[in-house]
Amino acid sequence: MVASAAVAGVSLTAHQRNILAGVNAGASSLSFVGSGFIVLCYLLFKELRKFSFKLVFYLALSDMLCSFFSIVGDPSKGFFCSAQGYSTHFFCVASFLWTTTIAFTLHRTVVKHKTDVEEFEAMFHLYVWGTSLAMTAIHLLTFYMPLWGAILYNGFTYFQVIRMLNNATRMAVGMSGQPYASDARDNMRALNRWGYYPLILIGSWAFGTINRIHDFFEPNHKIFWLSFLDVGMASLMGLFNSIAYGLNSSVRRAICERVDKYWPEGLKRWLPINFKYKALTQESELVLLSTDGQR
Fold first, then answer.
1. CB of 102 within 8 A of CB of 277?
2. The pTM is what?
3. What subcellular locations does the record give (predicted)?
4. Can you tell me the distance from the alpha carbon of 126 to that of 118, in angstroms, rounded to the nearest whole number?
């Protein structure tokens, strides 16, 4: 529904609206494929069905359904306009709320040293789906405020997690000596990756926020390039999430193990070797945290 508002600007020409509709459909298709791939991996590979990746699965499922409703049907008039718009809004809200549950899980596991995160699953579902339903019912003023609240919460949470683990890594290197320096650098790179997670929401919705503020002050004057960036970046959120949260080393390793087992030797030589062996030697930081928390 948010992207539809940008497409349906009254001051845009028919040609510009067609361009925005095409951008929305194309970007949403990429997000649908990316998030659908993560959903498929979760369903096919039993080793990925740990609690932390289950949260990624719910995130990808929300992104996939949000993208699906952005693509299908003709939202220009009648019942399908409302049905498509509200469905898209519901799953879009659910998507960024699931990112807060992932941030909460990391914070509780790493900073609070708690191992009870799986007990929160029912509460997570109530929080995400219940809040999404309430926000969809009164969507006009309840999208961007919770969105930026989620961005601030994720940013603060990941900052605390990264800072604590950075300090722990430096302390371990100081006590263990030089032989562990390379491992520490690898860990630091993995930790720094977490810092990019909040940027996904910022990058996806910054232009949309600016566009809504502009519409508030000048409702009869649409800026085409701003609407273009609004529609394009918001529709790509599912693709960004699937790459950052879902396409981790555990997923790549699971895929490579199936390739080694089932693919003919003649086809294996076309695979990138560095991708294959990197996947086989690294663990997903989210899955590692979940596993360590259960030991």
1. no
2. 0.77
3. Membrane
4. 14
**Which of 146, 179, 214 is the last residue in one of the domains?**
146
- The CB density around residue 74, as the number of other CB atoms within 10 Å, is 9
Co-location of 58 and 114 in the same domain: yes
Number of neighbours of residue 15 by Cβ within 10 angstroms: 9
- Among candidate residues 39, 42, 164, 149, the one with its CA nearest the CA of residue 110: 164
Give the dihedral of Cα atoms 198, 157, 291, 250; nearest 10 deg.
Answer: 10
Whether 154 maps to a domain, the answer reads: no
Backbone angles phi, psi at 215, to 5 degrees: -65, -30
Same domain, 27 and 142: yes
The mean predicted confidence, pLDDT, of the chain is 78
For the stretch 150-171, pLDDT in tens is 999 998 888 888 777 777 666 6
What six digits make up the tokens of 134?
């309430």
For the chain, the C-alpha Rg in angstroms (whole number) is 21
CA angle at 97 for the pair 94 and 102, rounded to the nearest 5°? 125
Domain count within the chain: 2
What length is written for the chain?
295
Do 124 and 51 sit in the same domain of this protein? yes
Same structural domain, 51 and 138: yes
Between the alpha carbon of residue 17 and those of residues 10, 75, 130, 231, 273, the distances in Å are 9, 13, 33, 11, 44
Q: Are residues 38 and 118 in the same domain?
A: yes
Q: Which amino acid is at 288?
A: L
Are 39 and 104 part of one and the same domain? yes
Measured over the CA atoms of residue 38, residue 44, residue 48 and residue 53, the dihedral's sign is positive
Structural domain contains residue 81:
yes
Domain that holds residue 261: 194-288
Residue 96: the pLDDT is 92
